[in-house]
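We modelled each protein-ligand pair independently. The example shown here corresponds to the pyridoxal-5'-phosphate entry; the chain sequence is given first, followed by the ligand as SMILES.
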Amino acid sequence: MYPKLKVDRKKLEHNINFAKKELEKRDINLCCVTKGFSAKREIVDVYYENGIREFADSRIENLKTISYVGIKRWLIRIPMLSEVKDVVKYSDISLNSQVEIVKALGKEATRIGVIHNVILMIDLGDLREGVRPEKAVEVAGEFLKIEGIHLLGIGVNFNCFGGIIPTEKNIEELILVADEIEKEYDIKLEVISGGNSGTIYMVQNNTLDKRVNNLRCGDVIIEGLEASYLSFVPEMEKDIFTFEAEVIEVEQKPSCPIGESTVNAFGDEVTFEDKGIMKRAIIGCGKQDVEIDKIVPIDKDIECIGTSSDHIIVDCTKKGDIKVGDIIEFYVTYSAILSATTSKYVTIEIV
Ligand SMILES: *Cc1c(COP(=O)(O)O)cnc(C)c1O
């Protein structure tokens, strides 16, 4: 069945094991983030089979489906007040910044007789989730008072909203916050979570403070891409995922539409360059399957000239033999993998 998202098992296994070893060497716990591929069961299985025991996702719906014994599940988006029941039931650890939400988590945990672990998120400049460092000690104190809650540690996130990367300077701020909390309340924070795939470069060049003992990594494993300097990690595989779709029409047609024009199906104005008659193919795949402008044909002789909900139109004048039923392969990026695994129309195949 097409379209299809293909996963190269060998390459994925290589990246999982490489990341795991790199982090283990420095006593950093690897928590694997599954949201980039919508926690698809057959892909998560590969992680589990390769020894991964901590899984993280932004959606409780996804965590529900990850259910091996002996694992820990992290909810890495701040929980919604309306989902606290499921959060306590389906996650062991959640990232938090809001006292009101942690109180609700504590109430639910107490009701069902468990302790729920929380990581207090500190914002160190990227300006997405987390409290500013000057407020951290006070909020940690509030978390510590809540019955049913264990303050497992603190964490930070970079490379998301503001495009701020982790550096020795902001990681030092994180450690300072940890020290202050520990001193103020005479406790030991078990986990200092130093960010996501963007922090890998600091592991590799040995500049990450030794107190950081956890990273939450998704992208670097599924793309082999280091997120801070956007370079491929040389020891890691790339093109783990590829996308395939099928040709449903091949015809010679003009390059410019004919007749009186209005906007296209999505209300956008469209203009066309006159390249004369071209050989055009239509591929049975569109916006409902994948974030279409985030995929690129692997064959350089095929050029994408337009898309709609269910079609990709390509110029294949340069390509001699193309016929109905042919399968066209595409490179994909992170957001294409995300959208393809979210679409119910795309088959996933591990090869
Ligand atoms: C998405 C996310 C991650 C994983 O990010 P990658 O760049 O895929 O490694 C980690 N932590 C939080 C809070 C996230 O939202």
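The longest helix spans residues 168-185.
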